[in-house]
Amino acid sequence: MPGGQRLKKALIMALKVGLAVGLLAWLLAHGKLNPREIGSAIRAYPLWMLLALLCNNATILLTAFRWRILLLAQGIQARRRDCVVMTYIGVFFSTFLPGGTGGDFVKAYYIARDSHKKAEAVTTVFLDRVFGLYCLVGFAAVAILVRLGALWRTTSKPALHGLTEAQLLVVGVLSIFLLSTLGLALLLSTHWRRLTHFLLDRLPGVGPVLKRVYEAVYLYRTQKGILLKFIAYSASAHAIATASLWLVGIALGDPVARGGVRALNYLFLIPLGFVVNGLPITPGGFGAFEWALGMLFATVLLPGEQGQNVGVNLAATGHILFVLTNLIGLLFYLKGKRRVAEAAEGASHDALPEPPHDAPA
User: Fold this and answer.
1) How far is Cα 301 from Cα 293, in angstroms, rounded to an integer?
2) CA distance 358 to 350
3) What distance in Å separates the CA atoms of residue 235 and residue 337, rounded to the nearest whole number?
4) 247 and 48 in contact (C-beta within 8 Å)?
5) DSSP letters along 329-348, please?
6) Beta bridge partners of 160
7) What distances in angstroms separate CA 220 from CA 68, 128, 217, 223, one per listed residue?
8) Which end of the chain has fewer CB atoms at under 10 Å, N or C?
């Protein structure tokens, strides 16, 4: 990688880290984030925290199986165990080693290095990210429509163009979902395919590789069963991730989490927080996720400072559990370090473009 690109990546990462530190420092300074309360909850309710941790691991298993069905559709034979191991290693790399080659490209190269389908393998990783994000935004859009009245009738001060923070989130999520739906429809249309082939046939050098990448994407247009399975895996993963935070909410003493039917509000609000967490604003969504859940809880569930504090501490505790879950990838990496290192070296010398590794799953 040229020095200029390395410097640019380092500056972008520094800005993201700075923003995350700034947001967390602001939350701490204003008493929204309470480490003592989080520590007390972990010590008082270890069973709830353990169950939440198990839920996080279940979501990784589901995303690994979800990725595998994309690989099989491309004719790339991949064992479940290999997909699980490389998914754990991928989330570890993305959490603790941001930048560089990234866990996504390494796991794609690792899976496909013996099949001569590296372009298709990298494409499946990219599509797993993109389709997974699309499903998450779709679930959040449904959640918004269910609670549109409560989100829109906020009484907080306008944040931008006369809209409150909650209203901006409503407009943003619904707009992203609409535009991404139109974009996917265009990308998978036969007219766009003919235009893409026309352009790539006249592009020297990388044209043939990009054509293979596009055809790997277009393949799923006729694989409706695969897409339905993908949606089912995504829905299950997001539901279990929401359940994990619900368990954390019980441990933190959130009256909503312990409120019987009221706890169903988690199904509506947590996906909105996950959308913000998945945006490439800060590393791992640190700071951004805390701000989002604090704002959402204060807007919809527990008006005022109580709701904000509950949302912020819930997100921060969730982040601790996410980090502990992703650390498991280190064990898999150390166990197969030589083979993974070979894949990383091959990936770093491969001419294929790297998929974004900080996009939400």
Assistant:
1) 11
2) 20
3) 33
4) yes
5) HHHHHHHTHHHHHHHHHHHH
6) 163
7) 14, 12, 6, 5
8) N
Tell whether the model's pLDDT for residue 125 goes beyond 80: yes
Q: Which residues contact 263 (CB under 8 A, 6 or more apart)?
A: 246, 249, 256, 257
Q: Where does the pLDDT of residue 155 fall: very low under 50, low under 70, confident under 90, or very high at 90 and above?
A: low
User: Which residues are CB-contacts of 46 (< 8 A; sequence separation ≥ 6)?
Assistant: none
Q: 131-167 burial, b if ≥16 CB within 10 A, otherwise e?
A: bbbbbbbbbbbebbeebeeebeebeeeeeeeebbbbb
| Domain residue spans of the chain | 47-180+222-349
pLDDT of 357: 38
The pLDDT, as a whole number, for residue 353 is 44
- Whether 269 and 143 have beta carbons less than 8 Å apart is answered as yes
C-beta atoms surrounding 13 within 10 Å: 14
* Model confidence at 160: pLDDT above 90: no
Which residues, in sequence order, are CB contacts of 170 under 8 Å at separation 6+? 144, 148, 151, 152
| Close Cβ partners of 275 (under 8 Å, ≥ 6 residues apart) | 136, 137, 140, 173, 360
Q: How far is the C-alpha of 195 from the C-alpha of 109, rounded, in Å?
A: 29
Pull the structure tokens for residue 222: 């006729």
Quote the tokens at residue 255: 């009256």
